[in-house]
Hints:
Layout lengths: L6 E5 L3 E6 L3 E7 L2 E4 L4 E5 L1 H4 L9 E4 L2 E2 L2 E2 L2 H15 L9 E6 L5 H10 L8 E6 H8 L9 E7 L4 E7 L2 E8 L3 H16 L1 E2 L2 H11 L8 E8 L5 E7 H25 L2 H10 L1 E4 L8 H9 L3 E3 L6 H12 L8 E3 L9 E2 L4 E2 L26
Parallel strand pairs: 1-9, 9-10, 11-17, 17-18
Antiparallel strand pairs: 1-2, 2-3, 4-5, 4-6, 7-8, 10-19, 11-12, 12-13, 14-15, 15-16, 20-21
Amino acid sequence: MRVRGSVAIDLGTVNTLVWVAGRGVVLEEPSAIAIDTTAGTVAAVGSAADTLADKEPQGIDVIHPLRDGVIADLEATAAMLHAFLKKARRHNGPLRPRALVCVPGGATEVERRSVLAALSVRRPRYSVQLIDEPVAAAAGAGFDLTGGAGGFIVDIGGGTTEVAVVAGWRVARAVSLRKAGNTMDEAILAACRNELGLILSHRAARDLKMQLGVGGTGAGAAEVVGIDAATRVPRTERVPGGLVARALEPTVSAIAEQVLQILSEIPAGLAEDVVRGKIRVAGGGALLPGLPERIEAVAGIGAVVVEDPLRCVVRGAAEILERGKKASGPGLRLAHSVHSRGWVHSRGWRARPDGSRPASSQPPATATTGRPTRISR
């Protein structure tokens, strides 16, 4: 059943995608927000904010408010989400809009409540449901989950890697590994500084990762511009593929080990489904050269990259949203709306449901605190 104005949200560490019923995926932008620290207002969100990252413009604080797939800065996330939803031009109907939000399978209850708070602290407030990412990814990967069919999914995002076997609309075995694309980027940054004396931006590290992958010396080399660690002036350097592969190896090995671990735990009744359906690799990490082949070699069964891996999770969430109650199960969790007399805790202040700020201030209870920048409404 399609409800006009309903939205599915893949709230990722690196990118956020928004699907609107009747229109498809209407927004795909970096999970970033730029704050004017002088005025305490939002200067930019999404791509416009991300372009300022690592450039340190005066008076601008660029925040990536999600860490390891969950909210690390509640107020910044709320401001970013509502700006995204406004850009998406969701249809405003008489009923409270419904939002299905994807969260890592290993997210704690506190982390899950912070997602509810982010969509409840400002108007319009949403009727929120949470879906575990492995279930959404499996649906988006093309598995036919009706009738109890199973499948193996590896979803490698920016903050987390979800390795799971699903049966029907339920998770059979799963692990949420907080090592993914961002961990790889940090490892490349450290390796370039230690071995080449070169300080790179996160964007440069991400480009090296996607160009050279895990192929080692066979991947050749790639040119990059950074800051010389000794002289502090810009210089150009050719980074060899072997350096990047060595930096990526700990994270790649950890992902491969989790795939083996989950395979060793699957029930006998799912074995045929997994072998015939193959391991399906989704998320931005699926595009890392050499990674799907590494998973296939370790697992001993086929591994394929899903169609349009960057949109796999939001596509699956949209399918589940349209199916409604037919897709209900432990993977789909109803998050109750905020009580009319309650308050949603945010960073350094307590917000009433209407979004106003009372004078009293208490430590946040739904998310970890971030920087002390206040965002004006």
